[in-house]
């Protein structure tokens, strides 16, 4: 991991982990603000998931816990792309919730705008962390490369089998010639012995 990544990931994750801890502490408040979104989810969710969507406090705690866990993983550089993908979801929900929670008075309008911009900026940073490959190829490239390698190996194995089959065919042809020659020699000796 480069020095920039070693410093940037913990810096980015610190705010996200703190936000997740805060969400865990205030799960009841968060549940109120995510209720409209969860009602929409209930309508499209399969029957097994509807019970979970109805427990808004549980969903708020799961989102907070997921954010804390993913933030820690990102800060440590463990599974950073997966952690970033989880953080995109939780940060989008947090942005929505914090925007809804903020009071809409003229005095707090500037602070509300600043908080929204901070959250959107964090969301952008997490999106960048999702595509950061840390100098290693992504899964799509690895899968494509593995497929090409398997194709090459199959081709070479096919060629090897083909050459071995040709070698075996040549050996059979030589054996057949040897047998034919041996049979002719045997017949000739037998005829010679009969005529004497």
TrEMBL record:
Bilayer disposition of the protein: Multi-pass membrane protein
Keyword flag Transmembrane: yes
Keyword Transmembrane helix: yes
Cellular compartments annotated: Membrane
CC terms in the record's Gene Ontology section: membrane
Main location: membrane
InterPro entries: DoxX
Domain of life the protein comes from: Bacteria
Keywords, ordered alphabetically: Membrane, Transmembrane, Transmembrane helix
Protein name: Membrane protein YphA (DoxX/SURF4 family)
Lineage start: Bacteria, Bacillati, Actinomycetota, Actinomycetes, Micrococcales
């Amino acid at each position: 991991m480069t020095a920039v990544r070693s410093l940037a990931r913990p810096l980015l994750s610190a705010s996200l982990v703190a936000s997740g801890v805060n969400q865990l502490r205030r799960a009841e408040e968060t549940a109120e603000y995510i209720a409209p979104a969860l009602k929409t989810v209930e309508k499209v969710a399969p029957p097994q998931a509807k019970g979970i969507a109805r427990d808004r406090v549980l969903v708020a705690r799961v989102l907070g816990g997921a954010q804390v866990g993913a933030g820690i993983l990102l800060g440590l550089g463990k599974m950073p792309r997966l952690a970033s993908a989880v953080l995109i979801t939780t940060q989008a929900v947090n942005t929505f919730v914090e925007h809804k929670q903020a009071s809409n008075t003229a005095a707090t309008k500037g602070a509300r705008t600043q908080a929204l911009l901070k959250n959107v900026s964090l969301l952008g940073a997490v999106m960048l962390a999702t595509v950061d490959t840390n100098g290693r190829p992504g899964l799509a490239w690895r899968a494509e490369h593995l497929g090409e390698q398997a194709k090459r190996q199959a081709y070479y194995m096919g060629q090897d089998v083909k050459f071995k089959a040709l070698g075996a065919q040549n050996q059979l042809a030589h054996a057949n010639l040897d047998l034919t020659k041996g049979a002719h020699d045997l017949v000739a000796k037998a005829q010679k012995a009969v005529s004497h």
